[in-house]
Amino acid sequence: MEFRRTTRADFPLLARWLGSPRVARFWNHETTPEAIERDFGGSIDGIEPSFDFIVEDAGVPVGFIQRSAIWDYADEQRELIALAEAPPDALTIDYFIGEVTATGKGIGTRMIREFTELCFADCPAASAIIVPVIAGNPASWRALEAAGYERFAAGHIQPDNPIDDGWHVIYRRDRP
């Protein structure tokens, strides 16, 4: 599995993935060129503290994954920080498999496991990675569990999609 930094050339692919019903169900993201630029351009330009990656399996783009320090987005992550009692050096990740043909094959688990290793290698001060998952997305939380994450909290966090009730399960993986 390869993780390459997202470029603007990936924006049409991101828009297609984010517009697919399966991804849109949990990401609920605008897909106009302006919205994609607004939400992913800052990482590319280095003016946002997040790091965005296209995930490739055998050279084929299959998904997206990003990481950031939770406290870099303290205003947006206030509910997660409180629920998780997040240490000041904690990271968080978010991800999706964009290609439907890549689902159901363990790619999500492998993607999370390998990206977790990369996060700990790239961020030696990070003691933990904390991931909130909407409770109604069992495929996501099962992939986290299979990748070595443990569920340690649950509670309300403002949902990305207004059709969700906001009930999240919180997963954590500590640095080995």
Automatic annotation (TrEMBL):
Coiled-coil-forming residues are: none
Q: Which InterPro entries match?
A: Acyl_CoA_acyltransferase (IPR016181), Acyltransferase_MbtK/IucB-like (IPR019432), GNAT_dom (IPR000182)
The question of whether Nucleotide-binding is a record keyword is answered with no
Task: Domain (N-acetyltransferase): give its ranges.
Answer: 1-176
Which residues constitute the signal peptide according to the record?
A: none
Transmembrane helix recorded as keyword: no
Pathway(s) where this gene product acts: Siderophore biosynthesis; mycobactin biosynthesis
Keywords attached to this Swiss-Prot or TrEMBL record, sorted alphabetically, are: Antibiotic resistance
Family annotation (Pfam families): Acetyltransf_8
Superkingdom of origin organism: Bacteria
Relate the protein's function as given in its record. Answer: Acyltransferase required for the direct transfer of medium- to long-chain fatty acyl moieties from a carrier protein (MbtL) on to the epsilon-amino group of lysine residue in the mycobactin core.
Give the protein name, as stated in the record: Lysine N-acyltransferase MbtK
State the species of origin. Brevibacterium sediminis
